[in-house]
Amino acid sequence: MAKKLRSLDHHTQVRLIPSYVLVVTWVIFTFVLIGWVFFASFSTSQEIFSDSMFKFESGFHFENYIRAWNTQKVSVYFMNSLMYTVVSCTSIILIASPAAYVLSRFKFRGNLSIQSLLASALGIPAIMIVMPLFSLVSRLRLTNNRWLLIFLYIAMNVPFTTFFLLAFFKSLSTTYEEAAYIDGCSPMGTFWRIMFPLVQPGIITVTVFNFITIWNEYFMSMIFANKPKVRPVSVGLFNMIQAMRYTGDWGGMFASVVIVFLPTFLLYIFLSERIIQGVTAGAIKG
Amino acid sequence: MIIIFLTPAMICYLLVFLYPSIRTTIMSFFAVESVSDPISTWSFNGLENYRTLFNTAIFRQSMRNIANIWLVGGIGVMVTALFFAVSLTNGMKFSKFFRSVIYLPNVVSAIAMGTMWINYVYNSSYGLLHDIFATLGMTTLSETLWTGPDKLFWSMLVAYSFGMVGYHMLIFMASIEQIPKDYMEAAQIEGANVFQRFFHITLPFLRGCFRTNIVMWTVFTVAFFVWGQLFSPVNLSNATVAPMNYMYEIVFGSSASTTTVRDSGAGAAVGVIMMIIVIIAFSATNLIVKNDDVEL
Fold first, then answer.
1. pLDDT tens sequence across A198-248
2. A6-10, A87-91, B217-221: range with lowest mean pLDDT
3. Which residue among A86, A138, B209, B261 is buried most deeply as judged by most CB within 10 Å?
4. pLDDT at B22 exceeding the cut of 90
């Protein structure tokens, strides 16, 4: 029996050869693409243009990174983005999880319509909301304000997060609340002390997801943050790339690219299973 | 408690989604020059903004571009994504690793991905395509200027689609994994081959999932912006312009091109047209799936 199974498995593997070829080519291509930028970030501009790039005849040029970090203001953008993402991701959870809990647990008029409104936010393109927001913001003189950017990041991701966490709260048994009620715990206390900790897996998944979204957000940031001081990495990187093309500092340019994608890249290496869960859980219901 | 818990989330929604959408829709029927003009200076314009848009050559071109992205790119991405999804759920070794790598471009900033494509893959003197074709001895292909004006759109589309495959593949995979194993086993025992199993079991099960993928692909296409900007950073070009780039130009007008005048009313109309496209995609795909009783 075991032998037969193995031969069946062997048979499948043989039939999968064309699939293997294509998948592996695709994977190698992805590695080459990212690997090349990584190597280029340690080379000088002349080496990048010649064929001898991978020999590193003049050694590894870590100074590309130092130059990018200090003179090209990557440090400023990086710190901005770090602050924006951390503050927004935390606030999103604090706003979205109570809402998701209420929507999943209580029956009241309008519950279902609120749920579908939140879901519809996923389909509203940024182009539809950016103009009124901009006019509001410029009348309040809040352009280039860090807190405004953070507010936008929060508000734009709350609907998705609420929607995502709803399913997690729904799957919890009501016996927890009943027990807490009998022991004299207030409904608020029950939520924060018992229910909130129970959905931790969902919260971690959706936060990783939000982190990546906010870190890479470009359009809104470009419109609401045009001063270098408040720019996040995505907008900063775009401007740097345009500038470095003219200054010819290719090593520094690729070093900046690496610095910008490294945080999400590392996060992905450690948490790829969670991120993938997040995509599929969010999509099946959507 | 319901009110306290729900209010912050609802405020976010009303302030950032509902109010702006309504105001943009109203604005699209008025003549408005600058976005920050107060409502008192707006003058009713009927459908004039929409008429102006469709009489503008570059806007028509931008619609043609996203139509191409949606259809050609969409078919390419969906076929590749489905192929990978079916392969990876079919008992392939290291499938988790492959899956993670294929999804990887989605977590990297589009700006970083675009830079890699433009400065490495498409570079005509040391780029990847240059090297591959040069090694194969195909000199004409190796000397092709991939980001030249005639190839710019297709180069951009390939680079963009490459990153999108992973996302749609994950959605396909999630649905394929929900197909009951017995169906496949029964078919296998009865002697159905890979293709028969794919067309008679997998595909019918995936209808709901196609709907999700098509709606999401439409949402992404409508929001096409960064790649257009990366591939023509200075001015709008016919090859890479998308409606959102055009809207950015006429509302926030930053680039050096003098051909465009500020017209926020028309910008709002672009937004409304994009919204309508999403709604059409959503309802059309809904209709297709409603006729079907397979519920996943």
1. 898 889 889 988 999 999 999 999 889 878 889 999 999 888 888 877 777
2. A6-10
3. B209
4. yes
The whole-number pLDDT of residue B21 equals 93
Query: What is the ipTM, given to two decimal places?
Result: 0.85
Query: Residue B170 belongs to what domain range?
Result: 46-290
φ, ψ for residue B43 (rounded to 5)? -125, 140
**Considering only CB atoms, which chain A residues are within 8 Å of B105?**
30
Cβ of A66 under 8 Å from any chain B Cβ?
no
To the nearest whole Å, the CA of A283 is away from the closest chain B CA by 7
pTM for the predicted model, two decimal places = 0.87
A162 and A252 in a common domain: yes
Q: What is the mean pLDDT of residues A114-133?
A: 88
The tally of domains found in chain A comes to: 2
Residues A79, A204: one domain?
Answer: yes
Residue A114 shares a structural domain with residue A237: yes
Measured between beta carbons, the chain A residues lying within 8 angstroms of B84 are 22-23, 26
Contact B274, A128 (CB under 8 A): yes
Is the pLDDT assigned to residue A52 strictly greater than 60?
Answer: no
Tell me: do A138 and A264 sit in the same domain.
Answer: yes
Q: Do A98 and A33 belong together in one domain?
A: no
Tell me the pLDDT tens digit for each residue of A140-159: 888 888 999 999 999 999 99
Interchain proximity A22–B83, CB inside 8 Å: yes
Q: Which domain holds residue A280?
A: 72-285
Is residue B82 included in any domain, yes or no? yes
Nearest CA in chain A to B281: A123
Instruction: Residue A232: name the closest of A95, A86, A91 by CA.
Output: A86
Asked whether residue A18 falls in the same domain as residue A158, the answer is: no
The full 3-state SS of chain A, as one line of letters, equals: CHHHHHHHHHHHHHHCHHHHHHHHHHHHHHHHHHHHHHHHCCCCHHHHHCCCHHHCCCCCCCHHHHHHHHCCCHHHHHHHHHHHHHHHHHHHHHHHHHHHHHHHHCCCCCHHHHHHHHHHHHHCCHHHHHHHHHHHHHHCCCCCCHHHHHHHHHHHHHHHHHHHHHHHHHCCCCHHHHHHHHCCCCHHHHHHHHHHHHCHHHHHHHHHHHHHHHHHCCHHHHHHCCCHHHCCHHHHHHHHHHHHHHHCCHHHHHHHHHHHHHHHHHHHHHHHHHHHHHHHHHHHHC
Q: Per residue in A112-123, pLDDT tens?
A: 888 888 888 888
Whether the predicted pLDDT of A165 surpasses 80: yes
Count of structural domains, chain B = 1
Bridge-based pairing of strands B43-44 and B30-31 is: antiparallel
Which of these three, A40, A64, A88, is where a domain ends?
A: A64
Residues A169 and A109 grouped into a single domain: yes
The reply to whether A264 touches chain B by the CB within 8 Å rule is yes
Q: Say yes or no to pLDDT of A57 above 70.
A: no
Tell me the pLDDT tens digit for each residue of B65-97: 999 999 999 999 999 999 999 888 887 888 889
pLDDT at B62: 93
Mutation to test the A interface, candidates B3, B4, B10, B17, most A Cβ within 10 Å: B17
B20 falls within a domain = no
Asked whether the beta carbons of residue A117 and residue B13 sit closer than 8 angstroms, the reply is yes
